[in-house]
Every structure is written in structure tokens, then in C-alpha cells.
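Researcher: I'd like a candidate sequence for this fold, 111 residues long. If you have to choose between options at a position, lean toward the conservative one.
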């Protein structure tokens, strides 16, 4: 039978497992990755759209742009616009109100 004293093995217990340091580095990596994620999200200036309850629903009238970008108004329905260009596709409105964009087939150049 083996007798165990209160101090038996205490030096080995204080030394710990050599992998404990690796686990601590893993924890540090998780903390740093969350910090970088929060820094990246804060640089997008999404403070008005994120609340404590999650993402805030925005109406279709709100347009978010980055500083330095410009937004040109769309012509009113029935108004004619002047310019040169090619047709990029067709937009259909479904019965449920959803808009579907269908890209036009690329046209072959005629020689």
C-alpha cells in the first residue's frame, strides 16, 4: 500500500502541463481576432444599422454611401434620357413585387 502525504507531488503540480502555455496562446489568438473583427466593423461606419437587438431593418428609401462617393438621381418614370449605351439586361416585376434582373445574352459583333 502507498501512503500519500499532503506534499507528495506538489512540485510536479506547480510545474503544470507544458501544453498550458499553448492553450493560453490560443486564448490570446481568439481575443485578438475578435478585437480585429470589431475594429474592421467599426471602420465601416455601421453604427446606425446595428443595435443591441441585432441589425436594424432599413427602408428602401435609405441609401448608405462611403465618404467621397456620389449618388446621381434616377430619371422619373416616363422621362426620357439622352445618351449612348447598350442594353445590359431586362428587369421583371413578379406578382409578389420582387424584382428580377435577367442579363441579356452577349451580342456577337457583325463584320
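Model: Candidate sequence:
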Amino acid at each position: 500500500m502507498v501512503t500519500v502525504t499532503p506534499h507528495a507531488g506538489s512540485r510536479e503540480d506547480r510545474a503544470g502541463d507544458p501544453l498550458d502555455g499553448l492553450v493560453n496562446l490560443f486564448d490570446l489568438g481568439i481575443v485578438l481576432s475578435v478585437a480585429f473583427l470589431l475594429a474592421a466593423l467599426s471602420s465601416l461606419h455601421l453604427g446606425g444599422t446595428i443595435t443591441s437587438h441585432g441589425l436594424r431593418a432599413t427602408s428602401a428609401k435609405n441609401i448608405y454611401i462611403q465618404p467621397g462617393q456620389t449618388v446621381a438621381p434616377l430619371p422619373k418614370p416616363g422621362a426620357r434620357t439622352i445618351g449612348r449605351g447598350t442594353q445590359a439586361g431586362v428587369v421583371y416585376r413578379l406578382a409578389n413585387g420582387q424584382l428580377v434582373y435577367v442579363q441579356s445574352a452577349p451580342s456577337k459583333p457583325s463584320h
